[in-house]
Amino acid sequence: MGQGLSCVPSHEHGLFSAVQYGDLEAVEALVGGDTALLHQTTPYDRQSLLHVAAANGQIEILSMLLDQSLNPDLLNRNKQTPLMLAAMHGKISCVKKLLDAGANVLKFDSLNGRTCLHYAAYYGHSDCLKAILSAAQSSPVAASWGYARFVNIRDGRGATPLHLAARQRRPDCVHILLDNGALVCASTGGYGYPGSTPLHLAARGGSLDCIRELLAWGADRLQRDASGRIPHSVAIKHMHGACAALLNPSSAEPLVWPSPLKFISELNQDAKVLLERALMEANKERERSILNGAAFSVSPSHSDSGADDDISEASDNDLCSICFEQVCTIEVQNCGHQMCAHCTLALCCHNKPNPTTASINPPVCPFCRGPIARLAVAKIKNSDDHDHEVNEISSSKLKKSRKSRNFSEGSSSFKGLSSAVGSLGKMASRGSGRIAADNDWMDKS
Q1: For 411-438, how does the pLDDT look when each residue is reduced to its tens digit (9 = 90+)?
Q2: DSSP codes, 335-354
Q3: I need a surface site. Which of 36, 175, 323, 402 has the fewest CB within 10 A?
Q4: What element of type H or E holds 379?
Q5: Are the CB atoms for 397 and 319 separated by under 8 Å?
Q6: Does the global pTM surpass 0.85?
Q7: 422: buried, middle or exposed (CB in 10 Å: 19+, 13-18, 0-12)?
Q8: Taking the CB of residue 238, how many other CB atoms lie within 10 A of it?
């Protein structure tokens, strides 16, 4: 990738070695008052001192160099910036320092035409990815493009950061990008195979976690690449049996987050976390059924860590009045009515993305029929009658609160969702957007 840091013997060699190993005193002694030495580069790769410091995470030396008014966007032989190398190697402190110094997030290298965002996604450094996206929201350069366009920026062969994260099995980065507006059904130009979506690439890489995230955000299991293959076919070709079972068009459709919830203008962040967790739990119940039927099991290496199986008791007043199984965790504002996250999903989520159908009306509160304009985390009272936030309760309360009542023993924690959907009315689905490939692209890695 052009990140090799070659040095030359002599005085310059000592200077680059001191920067690489973080010897600040040696760097200051070698430079002395000769600021021209700060602009030295390695002979072949043309790595500057900033590149070496950023790639090796030497934040003190990087800060010293930037204080000398060095350009944070210096280019090496492959037109990579120090920010790209810091993102590539996951040096978050250097990434933040360079962004604070005004490093340009829209610089493209000459290898694959990739930006720092591509590098962070490809190598799976979610903290660096978050920092770059946060900076882009206030960056004048990104503002000139538009934030949504930046999140979906394509490399020289048509790959977006989401494509790279999905192919490289980076579920955390996939989630961050989707949460920031990455197009889940975008097609590539030439990465992997022409016309591949992130779901095709996740299927090729065999990442169940990436597939879960993409399906929950509305990825289309029937979308075909330029060769006419659906993701299910790709998973079978690469012998990823569990992935193929989930992607089989004949298997149950997953619940999709969050198209109808876009109506809700002020979705409290804590409430969003609860809803996302509930949705993933629901889809994992579906997944277990599919994999059991297909004689596949999910090994720890292929899945997220298991949820806490501890059982928490809840009082009658805490239980959702719709399903009578879950603790009330979500409050509708301004009416104040409460329900569990699972029943909230039943109101607001759909089972199958449908590009031809649009939701006309926002979801309504099932108790007062008023429009849901805002969701927040519900407050409940503990045994000492002190209010506290639901998100401070152990995560097991978000699962089924099993009481010795007339609940069926074998039911899943999401058993009431389908019945709640039927009783409360299904929201029309809003389909996932698709974009055509703009360029022929991407490495068949």
Answers
A1: 333 444 444 434 333 333 333 333 233 3
A2: T--EE-HHHHHHHH-BSS--
A3: 36
A4: strand 379-381
A5: no
A6: no
A7: exposed
A8: 13
